[in-house]
Amino acid sequence: RMETDCNPMELPNNTGFEEDSDYTDFEGTEVKDMRLEAEAVVNDVLFAVSNMFVSKTLPCAEDVAYINVETRERNRYCLELTEAGLRVVAYDFDQTDDRLQTPYHETVYSLLDSLSPAYREVFGNALLQRLEALKKETQS
């Protein structure tokens, strides 16, 4: 499984979703491909969780994708990504539970922040290291 140690210099500069993953269809209206959005979400925060990947079992569509995440506390979740945001839809990989009424989060950062104290610590430390590096750059 993909477990990575954080290199703060590789911390993503962007926050939120990638603008360049929007597509324009033949009528000129914008269509988001949620699988690409989901891949961008995974790439943004993979360093701060034990494992995270777009589900290959659950169906991805233009308007929905599913992401499996295992926190550093070893808790597993299946997340649903839609225009409304991200939310937990099950407490295991590749599952959905219609009875779960979990809130939507605008960003993967706020969702993981609410689920995993270890994520919060790793992400915060990476941010601090990056700020220190920027501070050194500006001083030299």
From TrEMBL:
Gene3D superfamilies in the cross-refs: Hypothetical protein (hspc210)
InterPro entries xrefs: GSKIP, GSKIP_dom, GSKIP_dom_sf
Gene Ontology BP terms: regulation of canonical Wnt signaling pathway
Pfam families: GSKIP_dom (PF05303)
MF GO annotations: kinase regulator activity; protein kinase A binding
Boundaries of every GSKIP domain copy: 34-134
GO cellular component terms attached to this protein's record: cytoplasm
Superkingdom: Eukaryota
Family: Belongs to the GSKIP family.
Name of the molecule in the record: GSKIP protein
Organism: Tyrannus savana (Fork-tailed flycatcher)
Gene: Gskip
